[in-house]
Amino acid sequence: MALRRVKLALAAVFSVFSIFFSISLFAQEDTHVRPKEEHGVTEDKHESKKSFDAAEVIFGHILDNHEYHFTEYHDAEGNVHHVSIPLPIILYSKERGLTAFMSSRFEHGHADFNGYRIGDEKIVAVKEDGSVDEGVKVYDLSITRNVVQMSLALIILCWLMISIAKSYRKGLGVKTAPKGKQNLLEPVVIFVRDEVAKPNLGHKYEKYLPYLLTTFFFILINNIFGLIPGTANVTGNIAFTVVLGLISFVVILFSTNSHFWGHIFNPPGVPGFVKPILILVEFLGVFIKPFALIIRLFANMVAGHIIIICLISLIFIFGQMNSIAGWGTSPVAIAFTVFIYFIEVLVAFLQAFIFTNLTAVFIGSAFEGGHDHEGEHIHV
Question: Are 128 and 260 members of one domain?
């Protein structure tokens, strides 16, 4: 009972920490949005063509957004036209209640709507005179592009697994050779079982295999979606990886036993004067493990996308300096971009495997000593 209380307390502490950490990543204190024209009227449609801003393009891709924005162009009269897919905006405030509308109402940040304004993807309440209403706290519950892609990934994952399970129930792939989707996923499932679950979890692998497979395929599908031009880099969003790391931490924590905690709070074979330092290090390691999962996935998925966008941006940067330099840079930049893109396809699979494998390693270490001998009875 005491051990269970320790587990629950640690899970609660880490959960609260992670929630506040993830919220602070998006809750910006600065609510200053660029001023609009009188009464929130839209800006002049005949905008002057601004220079290429690589930083804006990079952060526009790796950060979340209230719409899918693909490109923009100027017509013969100089009007700016945006090619985008608007997404639902859902806002709540105690003073104004619940409000819902499409993000196109903001006209890409150039107009206010229904007493709200968007700037740098942060929505604030505004008064009739166009100034920011500091007295209204806005809770943004919008369906952003990250939410849309995660939902699509979940639908695809469920559809794949349920359809394959139905095929196996009918005897396809059991009494006969695998067909269609079974040929595609069965080798991956077997790989995760034999190379990730069994070596790290021993005789308990069947208990954790559904979670490991779900984690692997969910990360993989989102990684692949992020490589499609115009989509969001969901796995490169720190909030996404924080939630995955938190779930893994809870699973790891509830897999521990008295043997695990005994090694942390009373390390055997260690001199007494070293124990206080080692206990602190080992205890911090309980929290560092999921943190390592969070940062590893986030950093690797963000880095590749930034490199690709930077290489493409070189074409426009040199093109602004000189058209010949822009055309001359294009073949080199495109060649390197294609090369990095293919590496990113490999990284998509690799990072899904690493996250899943490390999770299995941490779970296995949580009940260390529990399968050292029983693992010999596993039949492949």
Answer: no
369 Cβ contact list (under 8 Å, min separation 6): 259
Q: How many CB atoms lie within 10 A of CB 232?
A: 24
Residue 100, Cα to own-chain centre: how many angstroms? 25
Domain housing 187: 145-377
pLDDT band of residue 108 (cuts 50, 70, 90) is confident
In order of 73, 86, 120, 234, 378, the CA distances from 79 in angstroms are 8, 20, 22, 32, 69
Question: For the chain, how many residues are written?
Answer: 380
Residues 200 and 149 in one domain: yes
Looking at the DSSP bridge assignments, the partners of residue 132 are 126
The verdict on residue 257 lying in a domain is yes
The tens digit of pLDDT for each residue in 299-348 reads 998 888 888 888 888 888 888 888 888 788 888 889 988 999 899 999 99
